[in-house]
Amino acid sequence: MVKKNLYILTEGGKDIGYGHLTRCISLLQFYPYSKLIIFAKDKENVEKFLKLQNIPKDRYSFYNWHYGCMPNLKDKFVFIDSYLAKDLLLKKIEKITKKLIFYDDYKQRNYKLYKNSIIINPTFSAKELFFSFKKNILLGPKFLMLRKAFFKVSRKKINKKVKKIFVSLGGNSHKEKNILLNKVIKLLNKFNFEIVIPKNLDDVKMKKIMQEVDLAICAGGQTILELTRVGVPHISVCLADNQLPTLKYLTRKNLTFFAGWYWDKSLLKNIEKYLDILSDFEIRKEISQKLQNLIDGKGTLRIINTTFGKRVTTY
């Protein structure tokens, strides 16, 4: 393996959430010469998160890189996963790096600005959003980044009856979300369920829980992608605009039961209705099999191979 260092610029924390960090961790897991450069307002919380994910301290550093404060990136390989960084900053970074790769699952970038970068849009409907392609744009779910535990996943075992429900509504601080969670808990009083806080679990423990549940009530972020990989049928709730592309696609393909936005007055009624539908064994079995066919868990490796060449690592 040729040693080529990769700097991963991203963000996370209490107000931002942990989705960016979660998927960037997969780069650390698959590529040993990579390091996280993190923008965070609450470093202590982020450090606790990284410790729970088994990330050693020498694999990350904190910088206010959104404001131009960052390590020397001249002639380096740089990967960026950020909603907050502006195109102007990314263009400046592009000029000095050996190669810039950025992950854009919300189509928020002005792609015409970038001539030498690799742009990754991994959303399910990415190819439908582009009428013309450039060679440096990688599209579709085969580039979705999942943590290493989700690389190999066996076929989901489907129980005849719903025995346990997975409940998770994201990892950031959100007053309305917490109110909703309490209402969902009351709704599930006749079920066996587990409240899951993604930031408190590493990938191995998360996968184990997902394999043990029969269905999930979840937000439309990184967790729903991991649930999809494992083949857990889900009732989904939208917490932010950037979750809509995934939820719209899965809804259109009848692969999630979209209950609505977190503030929707009919949300709980929708959840209750969908719980009744998903009590049907055959429906859960069919959806589970289709979900597992959507994502193969090799997205991070494809990104690494595209960046450095196929000799760096193999599937």
Q: How would you sum up this structure, described in words?
A:
The chain is α/β, with parallel strands linked by helices and about 325 residues long. The chain has two domains: about 5-145 and about 295-310, 3-Layer(aba) Sandwich (Rossmann fold); about 165-290, Rossmann fold. Helix content is about 35%, strand content about 15%. It contains eleven helices and twelve strands. The chain has helices spanning about 20-30, 45-50, 85-95, 125-130, 175-185, 205-210, 220-230, 245-250, 265-275, 280-290, 300-310, and strands spanning about 5-10, 35-40, 60, 75-80, 100-105, 120, 135-140, 165-170, 195, 215-220, 235-240, 255-260. The protein has a seven-stranded parallel β-sheet, covered by helices on one side. It has a five-stranded parallel β-sheet with strand order 9-8-10-11-12, with helices on both faces. The chain starts with 5 loop residues before the first strand and ends in a 7-residue tail after the last helix.
What distinguishing features does this structure have?
315 residues; alpha/beta; Rossmann fold; 5-stranded parallel beta sheet; globular
Helix percent reads 25-40%
Strand order of the largest sheet: 3-2-1-4-5-6-7
Question: Major sheet: size, sense and barrel closure?
Answer: 7 strands, parallel
What overall geometry do the principal axes of the alpha carbons give?
Answer: globular
Question: What is the total tally of β strands?
Answer: 12
State Rg.
19 Å
- State the CATH class of the largest domain: Alpha Beta
Structural class: alpha/beta
Low-confidence stretches: 311-315
Count of helices? 11
Gross CATH architecture of the largest domain: 3-Layer(aba) Sandwich
Determine the CATH topology of the largest domain: Rossmann fold
Measured by DSSP, the beta-strand proportion falls in 15-25%
| pLDDT averaged residue by residue | 90
| Topology order in helix (H) and strand (E) letters | EHEHEEHEEHEEHEHEHEHEHHH
